[in-house]
Amino acid sequence: MKKVKISMRTREALTGYGFIGFWLIGFLVLTLYPLIQSFWLSFNEATFFEGKIKTSFILFQNFKYAFLNDTMFPMILKDYLSDIIINVPFVIIVALFIAMLLNRKIRFRGMWRVIFFLPVIITSGPIITELMDQGATSIPMLSDGTLTGFIENYLPSFIATPILVLFKKIILMLWFSGVPILIFLASLQRIDKSVYEASSIDGASSWQNFWKITLPSVKGFMFVNVVYTIVTLSFFDLPRQTSGRPTILTFMKTQAYGVNTRGFGYACAIGIIFLLLIVLQIGFYALILLREKKTKKVVWK
Amino acid sequence: MIKSIDKVKKFYGDHVKNIDKYRSKAKRFVFGMEAGTGFISKFLIYFMLCVLGFVFLYPVLYMFITSIKGAEDLLDKSVKWIPSEIFLAYNYGTVISEINFGKALYNSVVVSVVPSIINTVICCLTGYGFSRFKFPGKNILFALLLITFIIPKDLISIPTFSWYSQMKLIGSLWTYIIPSTFGQGLYNVIFILIFWSNFNLIPKQLEESAKIDGGNQLTIFFRIALPLVGSALITVFIFSVVWYWNDSSTAALYLNQAGRDNWATLPIMLTRYQNKIFSLTQGGPAMMLYNGIKMAGSLLNIVPLLLLYFSLQRYFIESVERSGIAGE
Q1: How far is CA A276 from CA A257, A273, B92, B99, in A?
Q2: What's the rounded Cα separation, in Å, for the pair A252 and A267?
Q3: How far apart are CA B99 and CA B264, in angstroms?
Q4: What is the rounded distance in angstroms from the CA atom of residue A185 to the CA atom of residue A197?
Q5: pLDDT, tens only, B11-60
Q6: Which chain A positions have a beta carbon within 8 Å of B248's beta carbon?
Q7: Is A186–B324 a contact, with Cβ atoms under 8 angstroms apart?
Q8: A191 partner at 20 to 30 Å CA-CA among A256, B222, B236, B261?
């Protein structure tokens, strides 16, 4: 028998495929293929009966219906967008702020980190729903009182409404900053302390240090955090939004599995719109945060 | 005479010097040598930390207090933190029998531990593959792996749901085991990233020397690489358990279909109880009477997680910091 000779490189490649094999099969069969199928379904009128999907091709009818005929979907979309536009920057800024506090020489740093990370462990749909229903996701001082009245009366409604909604669930938003805080903290600790010392000797204030040193060096991590926050906020399985209307995912699931609804095709169309929205948001933040400036770049180790 | 004047001068001089010293000491204490080390800024920092810490813990405290309140206290808005009567036994007793706590707890443990074991193994292998070997299409595959993070899982699950129901798997644990086995379970992207970054930290020379000594790839993986990422294994496992435990949407879709709810987990039972109360009171103000019982249920749901977190918090926190660096 002749022994087949395999070069070192081929052998390495084969071993590599071997290690990622399970994932690769799963990705192709359980993620990519269903995604393509969902995409195809979104151009179809699809009904689900006894385990089988029956389809008839209708091109863009589902998408057209979503925006032009459906009374519910545009409202849900508006709720989602006005929420996420204000929530993501809020979570990121709060997370950076807390991380900077924790990055100072403070006592019991471990204890603080444990407190700020705790929500990541205990948040789940039913718990949050219960807390929201009972009004425990808001600080009493903020949610009722003169401040909200002032905002309602003196600010235009397209600014006032998102702020009031944010007040209503401000603790919930803080709770979503657990992971971003830790990632920011890790990135802050990588900045060399001597850089700050040098700039202070040159007469820079801490305000300038923040804009010129801290912010540029955490920008990459900020993008990671933004993606994480967009994804977790969008996919969090809450049944209702603060406005009382269902979230996009809940709406999609009722359309797919509910009775007297438009079925799988329409649900897939909504899912595709949702996916596009998320891609657009991430692209927008990528443009802001990952744009390379032409000026000389200083690289910190 | 002159000598004594000198003495006096010296005496006062020392005093003046001391006063200066004290004054500068006091100044340093209040304002600090450099920005952020003085008493004022320290006070501000701790003050802000305390406020934020309280805000973070407020819902948990609220949950606990509400869960021991009786009906009267729930209706009385002036009773905030100290209930006039403690209904601990009644509230918890009611909810334990309502949500069938023993069975739901068992279901939750099985539904979260079984896929987590598989996740840990498969993600570890995948992370190792991406970290150690060169193969064609590796970068594209890695990019695709990252992209799957932003795809809504409910979009994917529409076709997969129909497959599972064709295979009559809805309501069984296989709907969890199959995706996990092929690396497509909950948050597997993050787990693969954690392993990938941990393996990247191990110097390659260790394995190369083993290769020269004639070890094959699997032996090298099990004998050298795996023992070095022990903490990542624990981390991924407990994170996975926590996320499966908290997940209610996948569970509601695959395990909670009509007639087949032998795997109803704690969050599912809790949602069911919430809905039951909602329809019982028709969403009216009478719903408030049940707040105490519902909160007792919520708290029972998170107590196992809290115990896990406080005993193993080191693994949770360090791993996120490390994988954050990798995610750059």
Answers
A1: 22, 5, 45, 39
A2: 5
A3: 10
A4: 19
A5: 666 666 677 777 777 766 666 555 556 778 888 888 888 888 888 888 88
A6: 124-126, 237
A7: yes
A8: B236
